UniProtKB/TrEMBL annotation:
Domain BAAT/Acyl-CoA thioester hydrolase C-terminal: from-to ranges: 212-418
Alphabetized Pfam families for the sequence: BAAT_C, Bile_Hydr_Trans
Name listed for the protein in its UniProt record: Acyl-CoA thioesterase 19
Domain Acyl-CoA thioester hydrolase/bile acid-CoA amino acid N-acetyltransferase as annotated: residue spans: 20-151
Family as reported in the entry's similarity comment: Belongs to the C/M/P thioester hydrolase family.
GO molecular function: fatty acyl-CoA hydrolase activity
Species annotation: Paramormyrops kingsleyae
């Protein structure tokens, strides 16, 4: 009389957690040496399906431990504990140019994780899974308050950590795509920072805001009753880095405690408005390149790095610690060349001790909080114009860069905003 093989047991822990928390995924009660496929599926807020899969072989005890065992094929290979998340890509037949970004931080993203018999590469919907578990991933932690801000002439969303504070604060500036992007600020609040996601660019109109707009936002944060007013940082990505560097160097109102700059440049007309920066980009439009798939490469618009001091921020004027994060395969901005020039300028100003650079081979432009899927190219709309932009990067090194830089960013912020002596290798 044969004994029936028990059903496999799939475990995902935590089943409800923050986006930057690692998952522990295990399968047990398999036959030893069993080939299986682990599959993840996400239905985005835009109605698109994203999926990833890894091929595994169970060990002598009939178990697969994703944190320890290597994937031998699929969306990723090797030991990749979070490969089922960062390896997500649009399902076959999806619209071109997709990018996965969370819009409603008050709701979770649900990841459906399944295990299938054999090494499967397609047709998951038509197959019966051996086991299925759902995992909720959140940007908004329990107790964090989300407050819409439309006062003092500014527009944004303020996230306040649980508790009474006062908390260190971060003014969060995104890039040239415009709009209001909240998910990084929500996640920063989960780590103990009051974070203001600021809207300052329109997707259809030339930006008209000046330094006074950002100064009003910075002052709003400083004066908030649950904010420690002398511990406010700037956090910029892409075009937001350009804004942050200019403010830190020249504003008499904004005196940040520290500065985090991701995938940006200091090249811009000094003393001009945001509109002047876009106008300068337009003058250099003839430097636009295209890859073999006709995807737009903009990095040359700011090259060569100018020697004229009126065409770049004098970063030597910055008096606070600066963390600069660079993807060496950035195809959208000349981040590496800009970082080298900024490093030289800080050294000449005697401020090398304030400057930390994290440079990642194989990483592209969109270095964001960890475990979101890498997107090498996507649709992009700015000033009413739509294009397919090449951001750069390769999935595995880019995803490792996101994880490493996020941990070091949190350590940098903790050290300079909370005064805790954490170095995390910086």
């Amino acid at each position: 009389m044969s004994r029936r093989q028990p059903s496999p047991l799939l475990s995902v822990q935590p089943c409800r957690g923050l986006w930057d928390e690692k998952l522990c995924i295990t399968v047990q009660k398999l036959p030893p040496g069993q080939e299986v496929t682990l599959h993840s599926l996400l239905h985005s807020e835009d109605g698109d399906f994203w999926e990833a899969f890894g091929h595994y072989v169970s060990d002598a005890t009939g178990a697969v431990r994703v944190a320890e065992d290597a994937s031998v094929g699929g969306s990723y290979t090797g030991v990749e504990p979070m490969g089922l998340l960062w390896g997500l890509s649009p399902a076959a037949g999806s619209r071109p140019g997709l990018r996965l970004r969370k819009k409603d931080v008050c709701s979770p993203s649900t990841i459906h994780i399944s295990v299938y018999e054999g090494h499967v590469v397609q047709g998951f919907k038509e197959r019966k899974a051996l086991a299925l578990v759902d995992a909720e991933r959140w940007y908004l932690a329990p107790g964090v308050q989300r407050i819409e801000v439309n006062e003092h002439g500014i527009t944004g969303t303020l996230f306040l950590p649980a508790g009474f504070g006062p908390f260190p604060a971060i003014l969060d500036l995104w890039g040239g795509g415009g709009g209001l992007v909240e998910y990084r600020s929500a996640l920063l609040a989960a780590h103990g920072y009051a974070a203001l996601a600021l809207q300052y660019l329109s997707q259809k109109e030339m930006p008209s805001v000046g330094n006074e707009y950002f100064e009003a936002a910075f002052t709003f944060l400083q004066n908030h009753p649950r904010v420690c007013g002398n511990k406010v940082a700037l956090f910029g990505l892409s075009f937001g880095t350009s804004v942050s560097l200019g403010l830190a160097a020249y504003s008499t109102v904004i005196q940040p405690r520290c500065l985090v700059c991701v995938s940006g440049s200091h090249v811009q007309p000094v003393g001009g408005s945001l509109a002047d920066i876009f106008i300068q980009f337009g003058k250099n439009a003839h430097k636009t390149r295209y890859d073999d798939q006709q995807r737009v490469i903009w990095r040359d618009l700011l090259l060569p790095i100018p020697t004229d001091p009126s065409q770049k921020v004098d970063v030597g004027r910055i008096r606070c610690p600066v963390l600069l994060i660079v993807g060496e395969d950035d195809q959208n901005w000349p981040a590496s060349e800009s970082a080298e020039d900024m490093e030289r300028m800080m050294e000449e100003a005697g401020k090398s001790h304030l400057f930390t650079k994290l440079s990642y081979p194989g990483a592209g432009h969109l270095i964001e909080p960890p475990y979101g899927p890498h997107v090498r190219a996507s649709n992009f709309i700015t000033l009413g114009t739509k294009a397919m932009l090449l951001w750069g990067g390769q999935a595995q090194p880019h995803s490792h860069a996101q994880e490493d830089s996020w941990q070091k960013t949190l350590a940098f912020l903790e050290r300079h905003l909370y005064g805790v002596g954490v170095t995390a290798g910086l």
